[in-house]
Every structure is written in C-alpha cells, then in structure tokens.
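Reopening: Pyrophosphate--fructose 6-phosphate 1-phosphotransferase still failing for me.
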Amino acid sequence: MLTGGGDCPGLNAVIRAVVRRAHGYGDGVIGFRDGWRGPIENDVEALTLEAVRGILPQGGTILGSSRTNPFKRDDGVDLVRRALEAHSLDGLIAIGGEDTLGAAAKLFDAGVNVVGVPKTIDNDLGGTDMTFGFDTAVQVATEAIDRLHTTAESHNRIMILEVMGRHAGWIAMHSGLAGGADVILVPERPFDIDEVCARLERRFARGRHFAIVVVSEGALPSGGDIEAVGAQTDEFGHARLGGIGPRLEQEIGQRTGYETRATVLGHIQRGGTPTAFDRVLATRLGLAAMEAAHDGRWGTMASLRSTRIEMVALADAVAQLRVLSDEDLRIADALLE
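Support: Ran it again with your exact input. Result attached.
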C-alpha cells in the first residue's frame, strides 16, 4: 500500500481500514514510504494492527507522500515490479488522485497488480461521486468565510479568499455557497474582471458596504486582464499555483476604489482532523479496496456511487477529470447577488 500526491484528511482512515480488513482475512500488509518513491527505492514498513492503532482521527498520512512519478525513470516499472516480488506481494493498493492513480493504471497495463482508492480534496477525480478530504476542505474554507465576513462588515471591505482547486472549482463553489459569498470564481468558467468589479459596485450601491469573493487557485481571466500565476512544475508536469487572490486584491482595489484584502487559505485546507463524513467515506473505500485485492479484482478502483461503494475500472476512473457542470454553475449564479 502507498499514499501519493498531496496529503489529505482521511488518508490514515483508509490505511487503518485496509490493515484491519486484511487482518480479518489473515493477509499481511506492508506500506511503501513516500508514494511511488517507496517501491522505486524499496523503502517499506510493516503495517500491523498496533501500527494503525489511534490513527483514525489524524490528518496527513503515516506512510508519508510525494509527487514521485515512476514513469519519469526508464526502469521505474521494473523497480516497482521487483519491490513487489522482493516482499512476495500479490499486488499493490495505491491511494491517490489523478496522478497517482494515472500511474497505477499504466502499471496495471504493464502487468502489475494494482487496486486504487480515490483521494483528492479537489473532488475532481472521475469515476466517483465524491473523494474523501473534500468535505473537510469545504468545512475549513466555510469557517474561514464566516470569519472573514465579520472583518469585512466591520471595516467596509472586500475580502477575497483563495482556495484550492487547480482544474475544478468544487471547493470554491461549495464553500462559497455555504458561506454566502458574493462572487465565486472557478476554473471551469474564465472570469471577466470588469464584470466582477461591476457586480461588487452594484452591491455597494445597494447599501451593502462589504463583500466576499471566493476564488479557486486555478481560476483565470477570460481576456488576460490578470496575468496567470504559475511557477516550477512537478514530476507530473503541473505548475505550482497560487497567487490569484493577491492579484485580484490589487486589481479590484484599483478598479473600484474599495479597500480590498486577500487571504490565501493554502495548505490549511489539507491539514488537521478529518470530518466524520470523510472518516467514514475513507474507511468504506479502504475496506472495499482490500476486499477487491483479496479477491484478485486488480485494475479496479473503489468508488462512491450514489450512497454505495462500488468497484470501477481504474482506467475509466482516470480517463477524465470531474468538473463543475453547467447546472452547478447555474445554481450558483441564481443565488449570487
């Protein structure tokens, strides 16, 4: 078993569920350290009942994580295969998002036995209705909006909250709706900065002298009014995002003349204790993944479909990202002033 990509509330609940279910079967489990780096470097640790005792409410992952890509090395697939053979393992349970599970799908095509568990706070992984960690991230972001509301109203300010969401605006949309935001900006729909400012000015003209703007880190302007923010890329080719909030602070403040402040929530969304919902969902997914591995149903991923946990084809689950639909955007538009 390994955990890859960004850490996420609920990862330890999955690990615990896998180990406890394996113990019931009489199967043994080992953990590879730091994502795909573990099998590549054969860095492992035994996962016993005692090792996972008390980890259910803990954030992060006891196995560590990284954004290592086994396909960045010519011998990556062979090293993973050798690591499994060295420990007489039947297969591997990979817990991660689009990159980790994308690599897992390729490994399965190369003949490596893999079962996947979907993990991303962005909630953008295909093949499942929801990923664990998302509920916790939304709760953290909503609480931040509630707190920003009091300062915004006290000082007649526009407060901007930048949340995570590279390709999908699920966190911004759900927390913005829950927190009563006045503007929500998401990657699925490029925004017009003039239109954003006009909306805020109309709100002030009605006598509401404060406003809340929630923006996904991956949101971009439609006409290039604000330069895109990005830095170095990781091993999967993703630019490191962050900074659209401060850029909006500058642009909105200059264009409207209203005092504007930005807060970047950042990694606070990833850390800390998972919500009860995420603990239960992660546990259910971990149990299903271990049962699939025990039964030899390789090349599949545990998935939440409606209220049931089902196994879906791993290749299908990573074929495309799950993003906000036109209907999701319409609902938000109907509620915003």
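The chain has two domains: 2-133+274-317, 137-269. If you still see a failure, please send the error message rather than a screenshot.
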